Amino acid sequence: MLSRRNLRVKVMQTLYSMEHNAQQNPADAQKILKKNIDKAYRLLFFLLALPVRISNFIKKEQHVKSSKFLPTEQDRTFSAKFCGNPFIQILSENKQLQDLLKLEQSEEESGMVKSLFKDFSLKEEYVKYCTQTISEEQEEKKILLFLLSEVIEKSEDFLQYVEDNFPECVTELNRILMAAKEIVEQLSKNGTEDIFQFNDAKTEEDFAKELLKKTIEHEERFTELIEPKLKNWDMDRIARLDMVLMKMALCELIYFDQIPVKVSINEYIDISKIYSTPRSKDFVNGILDNIMHELRQGNAIRKTGRGLVE
Predict the structure, then answer these.
(1) Considering just the CA atoms, what is the radius of gyration of the chain in Å?
(2) How far apart are CA 261 and CA 257, in angstroms?
(3) How far apart, in whole angstroms, are the C-alpha atoms of residue 198 and residue 179?
């Protein structure tokens, strides 16, 4: 579910936190990394629970409106069709989501669900959906995807909630939203498979754990490779984050034989653009390029597979 860039960023954040906390050891670092990865999955579960919570809100609204002694025209025409969406039912029956849905909503969450439904109910697509007596399976799925893409994803309340409760996940929110849509796309009325089974999730998480472990284990070697190349740079002005990124890049160059050299270097240059200083891109690129040529001359970079050397 998380891309390798997302995982590299999480490793970077973990290593950077160790730079500022001398009491943290490698075991602590692995725990922090796992906690941050788990947090991303919890956000995914929360995101997929939102349509169910909106459906539950609609049911309550319908009950209130139908119980009025003098209902208005708006009360009488209120539609609860979305509650019968078969894919909402599939989501609500998933055990992992059931555990989450059993938790009492905070005031902030309840307010957000109400706001999301209000936005949803005003959309032309929702109004049209509610006027249809019967909807085909594809239409039922389409309205659920519309809710995720055009309502939840664009909601300021939802974004604020993520910033407040999942700050570690803000940079990968787009990827998590994409994963939620992919899950909905794969839902089937007759399907009984676990909707949270990701074929490559464990492999990718193992990559992150190994990257963290080896970067810590060989930190001295990476420092020895980097420091001689810093003669023309003011050490006091070199961002600590740049040092972390370069060590991670060197770790991939030397110890991850299935990742192409260019992929590793380009990834860390791009990450430096987003998370470090304005000059970091050129600095990281220059130092890594210099070390890469030195490592190649010493036959220290050994990639396997066609096209992986370049």
Answers:
(1) 25
(2) 9
(3) 10
